[in-house]
Amino acid sequence: MINITFPDGAVRQYAEGTTAMDIAKSISEGLARKVIVAGVNGQTWDASRPINEDAAVKLYTWNDAEGKNTFWHSSAHLMAEAVEGMFPGVKFWVGPPVENGFYYDMDLGDKKLSEEDLGAIEKKMNELAKKNSLYVRKEIPKADAVKYFSEKGDEYKLDLLQNLNDGEITFYTQGNFTDLCRGPHIPSTSLIKAIKLTNIAGAYWKGDEKNKQLTRLYGVTFPSQKELDEYLALLEEAKKRDHRKLGKELGIYTMDDDVGPGLIMWMPNGTVIIEELEKLAKETENEAGYKRVVTPHIAKESMYITSGHLPYYADSMYPPMEMEGEKYYLKSMNCPHHHKIYAAEPKSYRDLPYRVAEYGTVYRYEQSGELFGLMRVRCLHMNDAHIYCTKEQFEEEFRSVNEMYLKYFKIFGIDKYVMRLSLHSADKLGKKYVNEPQLWIETEQMVREVLINSKIPFVEVQDEAAFYGPKIDVQIWSVIGREFTLATNQVDFSQGRSFKLEYTTADNQTETPLIIHRAPLGTHERFIGFLLEHYAGKLPVWLAPVQVKVLPISDKFLDYAKSVAGKLKKSDIRAEVDDRNEKIGKKIRDTELMRVPYMLVVGEKEMNENKVAVRRQGKGDLGVRGVEEFVGEIKIEIEERRAE
Ligand SMILES: [Zn+2]
Ligand SMILES: [Zn+2]
After folding, report:
1. What values do phi and psi take at 595, rounded to 5?
2. Please, what is the end-to-end C-alpha distance for the chain in angstroms?
3. Could you please report the per-residue DSSP string of 515-538?
4. Over pLDDT 70: what percentage of the chain?
């Protein structure tokens, strides 16, 4: 018998050679139907693979990332089986899961896949899935594996085999298809109930343009048709809300070839949003005791050597420029500059916590192929701040940072979020992580306690911490359920030492402060991209570039319209007059297209009574009221930063 430990700590005995599927069945048939893959002693493991020793076991379903990845990767095998059946002689490179689905890179010789082929491959995949073929794992000696793929004439798999040794080579077979793969896979093809091939692209072998271009075929699969339908509807909705489309239509941002890829220029409408976000951040940070600073965009090489950015982070930085015999770098993070501000004046325990904030501009080198609208750019404006504190102050400081996140989530109507707590891994101390075993354990426990005490939903992930401390990645979901990584929150017990930051304690000792790096609103680029999707471009009044458009019914009322707009502007409301010689119906339609929250229609009656007819975006006619009355109402809506 072997001892199986469950995630809740319970231990049960099973016969040696039991499988995760057997374990699931011993709990309930319903669970067994849902199990896709297992975690065995921290390793993902086929649900059908025997377990021969005491083990900690987790069962993963479709709702877990491990489940989805295994499901999609197994679907790539199914797709390969279908393609091989239809195009004999095809050769395969790799077929990993991706964020939404999977792909397989293949060499189809001279054959170019068409849309019709995709339909036929889907159909074939559906037929094969119904056959209920098991994914069978087989350990195989290297010589036999080489023989198999030599006979098949697949030089790509032979290339993969070069780096593998006897004892670590496995084949997986389902139906008529055998692949070199380390696994794991789903138990059987019949779990795959709905299939959609989504895209055909070219991809150079090993990402090198000197190599042959392979065909990359993308697809996505689901355990039910309903889930596929929902996914396709979401894609449709996301297309309408695409921040690149809205960003152009609403005059938010632009890019230009002469400026360079990934370099965003914020147009007047986008700049209004930026200024409102910064105003919110400043108010919030002032209240929380932060002080603001401003730092240059460049610094000498020596500073980035101290910070460890060089050489470790050099690939993500712009190449240096030389001046007066020194190398200067564009900053990729604001921290080192802030550390220098901390160090500029001696500090005692009375000065802590010391909190400095800056909407800092940073430059990061992203490969041109990785650039994407506002989401992946080369120049970013970050809602940055650093808190320098004592160990005793840490919990309180960290808790307030989390509360700041929650406050923002409420303002922006972000109902779904999760914090991913990334921890170190003990066997990588001194390599991937600063070699301070005790400090790691202490800080990780401090962070965990704050999250538990604040009742914030979080998950823990091993071996993904930053070099200098545990970090929290904040993930948020837009109203249509798309996930965004907003920001990273980091605890740092190492940079303080590298920069020799100090404070004097009450009994006159010298200590190094802990540092919290935080950026709740992330970067303007990513956050505004998120907001455009989240609100489908219909920003709340306080964020809207134009808050009110005054629409005269005809030219006769133009002067009155201008006087109304003048009164609004005097009250700091962003108002414009539509002075075009157009019919009122067209003026209303155009204003709605620009997602302006309020329209004030003025004609004879309104002019004579000093009133306006109010229309609200998405709500229609709200009736006639006095100009002062309207100003009073909208001012409150703006001040309270109401979502609607
Ligand atoms: Zn595989
Ligand atoms: Zn930082």
Report:
1. 55, 40
2. 61
3. EEEE-TT-BHHHHHHHHHHHTTT-
4. 100
User: Which one of the ligands is nearest to 309 CA?
Assistant: 2
Q: Could you tell me if 457 and 418 are in contact, meaning their C-beta atoms sit under 8 angstroms apart?
A: yes
Q: Rounded mean pLDDT of the chain?
A: 94
Q: How far is the CA of 335 from the centre of ligand 2 (A)?
A: 4
pLDDT score at 499? 96
- pLDDT of the residue at 560: 97
Quick one: pLDDT at residue 315?
A: 87
Highest mean pLDDT among 361-375, 454-468, 548-562: 548-562
Cis peptide before 187 (omega within 30 of 0): no
- Say if residue 301's pLDDT is above 90: yes
Residue 595 alpha carbon to ligand 1 centre in Å: 47
Report field, pTM of the whole predicted structure over 0.85: no
For residue 479, how far is its CA from the centre of ligand 2 (angstroms)? 29
Q: Which residue has the higher pLDDT, 487 or 459?
A: 459
Taking the centre of ligand 2 as the mean of its atom positions, its distance from the CA of residue 385, in whole angstroms, is: 7
CA atoms within 13 A on the CB side of 608: 3
Looking at the predicted structure, is the pLDDT value of residue 80 above 80? yes
Mean pLDDT confidence for 443-460: 90
Helix (H, G, I), strand (E, B) or coil at 525: helix
Evaluate if residue 439 carries a pLDDT over 90. Answer: no
Q: In terms of DSSP H, where are the helices of 350-464?
A: 391-411, 437-453
Task: Report which of 608, 606, 546, 556 is spatially closest to residue 577, judged by C-alpha positions.
Answer: 546
pLDDT exceeds cutoff 80 at 4: yes
Q: How far is the CA of 488 from the centre of ligand 2 (A)?
A: 9
Going from the Cα of 495 to the center of ligand 2, the distance in angstroms, rounded, reads 10
Q: How far is the CA of 47 from the centre of ligand 2 (A)?
A: 42
Rounded to the nearest angstrom, the distance between the alpha carbon of 101 and the centre of ligand 1 is 14
Distance (Å, whole) CA 112 – CA 125: 19
- Ligand 1 is an ion; its neighbours by CB within 5 Å are 181
Task: Provide mean pLDDT across the span 326-353.
Answer: 97
Q: How do residues 484-528 score in pLDDT, each as one tens digit?
A: 988 788 999 889 999 999 999 999 999 999 999 999 999 999 999
Task: Find the 77 Cα to ligand 1 centroid distance in Å.
Answer: 6
**Ligand 1 mean position, distance from CA 110 (Å):** 26
Q: Which ligand is nearest to the CA of 137?
A: 1
Rounded to the nearest angstrom, the distance between the alpha carbon of 160 and the centre of ligand 2 is 39
Ligand nearest to the CA of 383: 2
Ligand 2 centroid – CA 274 distance (Å) = 21
How far apart are the CA of 161 and the centre of ligand 1, in A? 14
- Mean pLDDT over 52-77 rounds to 96
d(CA 470, CA 393): 17
Q: Ligand 1 mean position to 590 CA, how many Å?
A: 52
pLDDT (tens digit per residue) in 103-153: 999 999 999 999 899 999 999 999 999 999 999 999 999 999 999 999 999
Give dist(CA 300, CA 321) in Å, integer: 10
Contacts of 67 (CB under 8 A, 6+ apart): 36, 37, 60, 61
CA dist., res. 199 & res. 113, Å (int): 10
Angle at the Cα of 465 (from 490 to 436), degrees rounded to 5? 90
The predicted structure's pLDDT at residue 324? 95
Ligand closest to 489 (CA) is 2
Task: State the amino acid at position 211 in one-letter form.
Answer: N
